[in-house]
Amino acid sequence: MHRISRRRFLKIAGFGAGAAALAGGAASGLQAMARRAPGGETRVVPTSCDICFWKCNALAHVRDGRLWKITGNPGDPLSRGRLCPRGTGGIGAHFDPERLRAPLLRHKQRGEEAWVEVTWDEALGYVADRMQRIKAEHGPEAMALFSHGIGGNFLKHTLKAYGSPNIAAPSFAQCRGPRDVGFELTFGEGIGSPERTDIANARCLVLIGSHLGENMHNTQVQEFATAVAAGASIIVADPRFSIAASKARHYLPVKPGTDLALLLAWMNVLVVEGLYDKPYVEQFGFGFEHFQAEIATRTPEWAYPETGIPPEVIRETAREMARHRPATLVHPGRHATWYGNDAQRSRAIALLNALLGSWGRKGGFYFPNSMDVPGYPYPEYPKSGRGKVDNPGHKYPFASETITTGIRDATLTGQPYPIKGWLVYATNLLQALPSQDETIRAIQNLDLMAVVDVVPSEIAGWADVVLPEATYLERYDDLNVEFFREPFVALRQPAVPPPHDQKPNWWMARELALKLGLGAYYPWTDIEEYLDHRLKAAGYSLAELKQKGLVKGPKPPLFFDDGIVPEFATPSGKIEFYSTQLQAAGFDPVPRHERPAEGPPGSFRLLYGRAPVHTFSRTQTNPILRDAMEENEVWLNGSVGARMELQSGDYVRLRNQDGVLSNRVKVRVTEAIRPDCVYMVHGFGHTARGLRSAYGRGASDAELITRYATDPLMGGTGTNINFVTVEAEA
Ligand SMILES: Nc1nc2c(c(=O)[nH]1)N[C@H]1C(S)=C(S)[C@@H](COP(=O)(O)OP(=O)(O)OC[C@H]3O[C@@H](n4cnc5c(=O)[nH]c(N)nc54)[C@H](O)[C@@H]3O)O[C@H]1N2
Ligand SMILES: Nc1nc2c(c(=O)[nH]1)N[C@H]1C(S)=C(S)[C@@H](COP(=O)(O)OP(=O)(O)OC[C@H]3O[C@@H](n4cnc5c(=O)[nH]c(N)nc54)[C@H](O)[C@@H]3O)O[C@H]1N2
Ligand code: SF4
Ligand SMILES: [Mo]
Q1: How many Å lie between the centroid of ligand 3 and the Cα of residue 86?
Q2: Is position 177 within any domain?
Q3: Which atom, in ligand 1's list, is nearest to the CA of 616?
């Protein structure tokens, strides 16, 4: 199989042309796997990618009944005909020899990964029986569903029909929650996914940690390449010299955890030097005088000892932002759960954008649109008298979605009421939630633990029942009615059948509902019937979508200048420079910086991020993507390497502040990271025995994240507060 060296790979992976080069590399792998029959008959099936949540629309090419390759759908506004390297290698998910093949029932202790194969009827019968008992003893709210991605829609429907409101995804409290809350508090609207950022037209793009090029969300990376090619000025603040940093005019190696100080100082410069968008702020701003007074002392000189960024660099970069406004986009980031003050840091990013006048302006933030595709007309769900379990007494007053870790807390404590069953769909809670110990202890309190997965993941290892799903290449999912700059509705449909006894989520959700006596909630018998019903209500049909993959709506106005009427769903109806909501709830109405706590002497802050060819912990056994990157490395500053006599390629172990020792992992000794932190790619260091080819390869950041700082505004779990020491491996 063709291999690309790591350095060459990182060099090329950042941009479109690079993605194409990798696609060549991966394609040689997939051709070998698909054992292409010469002259065979090819079928092209429009569908959508599910290797990550961007859901690019794609074309699956099937030759002589075998999956051959997958490419971008040229009509797709997300992929514009090109998939990212993960999407291209996605077909490996279908071929993965480590896949779950049949439903499994536990026959030893939880976590021992000892199973017997059972029929679907037995497996779902077991789940339904336990669910009925839980309902009888504790009420339906005692069942929780953790679900990530569009594939969870039908199980959510079943759980709501059963009577539980306790449904959560890690995408809120472990990912973009603080960002959306920070923007909601400021502009009255969140950022959403795909992000409403007009990167392509930005003349100046400011990236705070957002490591585009390693973070491979397709449209954003393509737009980033467009902006760079058009000569946009790029400013990157990151303790690590990322791929994005290598494209930057200004790279600021900010001290970890001090971005809020940097943001306040930038705003200080814009206000003190009168460089902000005055008419915009006068017209749309609320509480600007309070804000101005509050940031008056946040000078670049004040920020210097906090951030390590010299005052003249702060001034120069602030002026650079002002020069290009309103086409200066301070990217809101996505994975924002860093230090526990994350909603306030995100609010500061929102305020900086407000000063630059970029919200609602070309090269800034656009107003997304979706098509009008009505939901399926189901009977009403039963109403829960107890409300959700995750946020008792609205402890986190600005939580706008359900908090996964709040459900975990309730499972541990029984408060505000007990949780006795977990249904887990496509989320590896042991890699995704901080403190594995709390997750495991919570699982031990359950009467039912059921996991739907495609491989025997860590979380599946703790289940009573494991339900093997057909991959995205082998199933229908719900319609994707996307909110984007161009509205569209898209279909995921099977390109090939599942190879063994795997089933699609919709089938499981429906069968489970029937066994629970909830047949009234499934008036349709086959998903094609459901999809066609919804599409016809919108003026389309399943036949049309099966052929085209997606249909687009008319191009709507995106910016104030195109006629969008500026409206802000905040209490004042304006952009809130001063937040009366925060003030009333006892929080800083204008964000304030607090110095982050240091680690034990001699330790390094543990940072982590993405690799271009992997998604979280879900792609390490995919034979194509594994071939592109088999293990992660830990980045260590050159001075530290020299002191410890370590060279790139040597193996080390990391020990965190609570004594947890990682698996062995290669070091990468480099000047591209500050000396006070180390960095690794998330998703490696698998401990599930069934993941044979990924087991024990690299280290897991999740395992070392024993501590987290909870965001008091919205319950997000800041996880950049763990420290490690490095131990050479003999
Ligand atoms: N290939 C690939 N792409 C993905 C994903 C994937 O799994 N694989 N996942 C997608 C998802 S769901 C998400 S949420 C995004 C995540 O992608 P981002 O939102 O870009 O992720 P972050 O965690 O914000 O970024 C990690 C970067 O932040 C830097 N960093 C760490 N601490 C600090 C700090 O204190 N200050 C500053 N300024 N920088 C810091 C790290 O060095 C690293 O470069 O990626 C998306 N794209
Ligand atoms: N330590 C640490 N924790 C993190 C992050 C981090 O960088 N470091 N990132 C955070 C972020 S930004 C996010 S968005 C979350 C992501 O959290 P998750 O979405 O939970 O990510 P994964 O760990 O990849 O878990 C996905 C699971 O779904 C399974 N799966 C894959 N395909 C399918 C399918 O088609 N059907 C079914 N049923 N299952 C499938 C995989 O085998 C895997 O077990 O994690 C968060 N937690
Ligand atoms: S960004 Fe890549 S992995 Fe994600 S959906 Fe698009 S092609 Fe697939
Ligand atoms: Mo995420």
Answers
A1: 6
A2: no
A3: 7
- DSSP notation for 69-89: EEEE-TT-TTTTT---HHHHG
Q: Are 266 and 302 in contact (CB under 8 A)?
A: no
Q: Confirm whether 511 is domain-assigned.
A: yes
Domain that holds residue 98: 1-169+402-552
Same domain, 284 and 302: yes
pLDDT means per 10 residues, the chain with 730 residues, are 31 36 41 51 96 98 96 98 98 98 96 95 98 98 98 98 98 98 98 97 98 98 98 98 98 98 99 98 98 98 98 98 98 98 98 99 97 97 95 98 98 98 98 98 98 98 98 98 96 98 98 98 98 98 98 96 97 98 98 97 97 98 98 98 97 98 98 98 98 98 98 98 94
| Ligand 2 atom nearest to 459, measured from its CA | 44
Q: What is the pLDDT of residue 39?
A: 62
pTM across the whole model:
0.95
Residue 506, by phi and psi: left (phi above 0), alpha (psi -120 to 50) or beta?
Answer: alpha
Nearest ligand, measured from the Cα of 716: 2
Q: How far is the CA of 616 from the centre of ligand 4 (A)?
A: 9
CATH of the domain at 23: 3.40.50.740
Determine how β-strand 604-609 pairs with β-strand 723-728: antiparallel
Q: Which ligand is in closest contact with the Cα of 683?
A: 2
* Nearest alpha carbon, ligand 3 atom 4: 52
Q: Which residue has the tokens 């100046």?
A: 204
What CATH number does the domain containing 649 carry? 2.40.40.20
Q: Which one, of 360, 274, 49, 256, lies nearest residue 722 by Cα?
A: 256
User: Is there a domain that residue 375 lies in?
Assistant: no
Residue 246 Cα to ligand 4 midpoint, Å, equals 23
For the CA of 176, the closest atom of ligand 1 is 14
- Asked whether residue 94 is domain-assigned, the answer is yes
Distance 617 CA to ligand 2 centre (A): 6
CATH of the domain at 236: 3.40.228.10
Which one of 205, 215, 593, 635 would you pick to mutate in the ligand 1 pocket, going by the greatest count of ligand atoms within 8 A of its CB? 215
Tell me, yes or no, whether 537 and 441 share the same domain. yes
Do 214 and 322 belong together in one domain?
yes
Residues 165 and 304 in one domain: no
Q: What residues does 47 pair with on adjacent strands?
A: 58
CA of 614, nearest ligand number: 1
Q: What is the pLDDT of residue 41?
A: 86
Cis? peptide before 557, omega within 30° of 0: no
Q: Do 238 and 145 share a structural domain?
A: no
Same domain, 147 and 16: yes
Q: Which of 150, 211, 221, 240 to mutate to test the pocket of ligand 1 (most atoms within 8 A of CB)?
A: 211
Q: In what order do the strands lie in the sheet with 57-63?
A: 42-48, 57-63, 66-72
Residues 6+ apart with CB under 8 A from 554: none
* Structure token pair of residue 140: 């339906």
Q: How many domains does the structure of the chain reveal?
A: 3
Find the 336 Cα to ligand 1 centroid distance in Å.
Answer: 8
Looking at residue 385, its pLDDT comes to 87
Within 10 A of 401 (CB to CB), how many other CB atoms are there? 20
Query: Do 543 and 565 reside in the same domain of the chain?
Result: no
Same domain, 505 and 627: no
